[in-house]
Amino acid sequence: MQRQGLGGSAVIRFRATGVLLLVAHLAFVGWLTLRPLDVPWVTAANLQPFAGIKADLALGPAQAARRIGEALLLLAPLGVLLPMAGGRLQASSLGSFLRTVAAGAMLSLGIELLQTAVPGQVVDIDSLLLNTVGVAVAHLALVPAARARIRRRQGLPGRLTLPRDEASQGPTPTIPRVGIAP
Asked: Which UniProt keywords apply (predicted)?
C-alpha cells in the first residue's frame, strides 16, 4: 500500500470511507434507475445524441433545467468518490481525471444497457452523455483542490517527485545468460 506521507490508519480510513460512500451511492443509483415502473406506455429509446436535450429545451427553461440537472447530478458524486476510494494524493491530475471520467462513462453505459431489460425504463443516449459530463465537472471542481489542500496540510510536495537517491541509482545491472545444463 502506498502511504504517501499520511499515517497508515489515516489512509485506510480515507479509502474505507470512500468505498463505503461509493457503494451507498451506487446502490441508490441502481435502485433509482433499475426499478420497474408501472406506466401505461413507454416512449421509444433515444439513440440520437442531443435529441432528448433539444426536446427538454423545447419544454421551457424550468422543465429543461430540472431534467438536464437531474441527469448531470445522478452520477456526479462519482467524480469525487472514485478518487477518494483510490486514496492517492500524489496522482497525475490528467490521469486521475481520465480514469474517473472513463469509469463514470462505463458505469453510465452499464446502467443504460441494464435498463433495456427493465419494464418502464427507456434507454437514452443523452443520459449517458449528461451523466459523464456530471462526473467530469464534479471531478474538476473538487478533486484537484481537495488533494492540494490535503497535501499542504500533511506537508507533502505539491507535485509528484522522486527523491534524489531513487532518481540517480545508475544503470540497471545486466545478468549474463546461463546455458542449458547437460
From this structure: Membrane, Transmembrane, Transmembrane helix
Q: What span, in angstroms and rounded, lies between the C-alpha atoms of 81 and 97?
A: 12
Instruction: Report helix, strand or coil for 41.
Output: coil
Low-confidence ranges of the chain (pLDDT < 50): 1-5
Q: Is residue 65 part of a domain?
A: yes
CA distances to 18, 46, 57, 58, 131 from 107, in Å? 17, 18, 26, 29, 9
Is residue 139 domain-resident?
Answer: yes
pLDDT, tens digit (0-9, with 9 covering 90-100), for 71-101: 999 999 999 999 999 888 888 999 999 999 9
User: Structural domain tally of the chain?
Assistant: 1
**Residue 87 belongs to what domain range?**
8-158
Question: What whole-number distance in Å separates Cα of residue 159 and Cα of residue 71?
Answer: 34
Whole-angstrom distance, CA of residue 24 vs CA of residue 39: 28
In this structure, the chain runs to a length of 182
- The upper half-sphere exposure of residue 76, i.e. CA atoms within 13 Å in the direction of its Cβ, equals 15
136 domain-assigned? yes
Nearest CA among 100, 90, 95 for reference residue 148: 90
CB 101 within 8 A of CB 135: yes
On whether residue 168 sits in a domain, the answer given is: no
**Structure pTM?**
0.79
CA distance 139 to 78: 8
